[in-house]
Design goal:
About 15% of the residues lie in helices and about 15% in strands. It contains one helix and four strands; from the N terminus they run βββαβ. It has a two-stranded antiparallel sheet. It is elongated.
């Protein structure tokens, strides 16, 4: 079955702070922004969830042949990256 990260549904949520005005406490849907994962829904990003799912699958391999295609959403807009 294809894996769809649960946070994918939140990809356009306003989680970006105003990078040019630190006194602005609002969140926006910027094209580019480093985000605080603690402020993001589910405290993660889709690519982080995809990596975790792939790692789990590869850790639990059997000797059966398999094919796995993995696609990451970035580097496509919006560019939401962890601050750290």
């Amino acid at each position: 079955m294809p894996y769809v990260p649960p946070t994918q549904k939140n990809k356009n949520d306003p989680v970006c702070k105003n990078m040019f005005n630190n006194s602005d406490s609002n969140y926006y849907s910027n094209i580019v922004c480093p985000i605080d994962l603690d402020q993001n829904p589910q405290k993660t990003l889709p690519d982080i969830q995809t990596l975790a799912a792939v790692t789990e699958k590869l850790t639990n391999l059997t000797k059966e042949p398999f094919f796995m295609a993995v696609g990451f959403h970035k580097p496509h807009i919006p560019f939401k990256i962890p601050k750290r």
